[in-house]
Design brief:
The protein has 124 residues and is an all-alpha fold. Helix content is 55%, strand content 0%. The protein is elongated. Bound molecules: heme C (HEC).
């Protein structure tokens, strides 16, 4: 009888630790950033218009020059963009909240810039 009780005690202990282990696993994972496959974002259609509207009152002369036909090369040769990695791209860093250019950038524009860089920063 005593042995059975001990066995039960051990089993319920094991069950409890299993359950709490499951709960722990359930709480810990943070959702991965959304991966956008085959993003249809276009530099000419989606990104350049942001520069034209929000940036070129200054960046027609201040580097990086962001005017039509000039901006892509200026961003790439000036190392303002690391294709595939917004977090290390000066363009993204300066535009995100807290960045030096944040006041000229809406969250919508920031999201477009991030998607464009993530999708490979192509000149399309
Ligand atoms: C009112 C003028 C002005 C506007 C508008 C402006 N910028 Fe700038 N930007 C500057 C100046 C001046 C510098 C260089 C000195 C500095 O960092 O403040 C600069 C620097 C930068 C840099 C280089 C990194 C850095 O922080 O020095 C990037 C990238 C940039 N701007 C992107 C943008 C983008 C993208 C926009 C539009 C969303 C924008 N800027 C709007 C004036 C402006």
């Amino acid at each position: 009888m005593k042995k059975r009780f001990l066995k039960l005690l051990f089993l319920s202990g094991a069950m409890l630790s299993l359950l709490t282990a499951c709960e722990y696993d359930y709480i810990v994972p943070t959702p991965p950033p959304p991966v956008i496959e085959n993003d249809t974002i276009s530099y000419a259609q989606d990104i350049q218009p942001i520069f034209n509207a929000k940036c070129n009152s200054c960046h027609a002369s201040v580097p990086p020059v962001l005017t039509v036909g000039i901006s892509y090369n200026a961003l790439m040769t000036g190392n303002y963009v690391v294709a595939g990695n917004p977090a290390t791209s000066e363009l993204y860093i300066s535009c995100k909240p807290g960045g030096s250019m944040a006041s000229y950038t809406s969250s919508e524009h920031l999201a477009l810039i991030s998607r464009w860089i993530t999708a490979g920063a192509k000149n399309d």
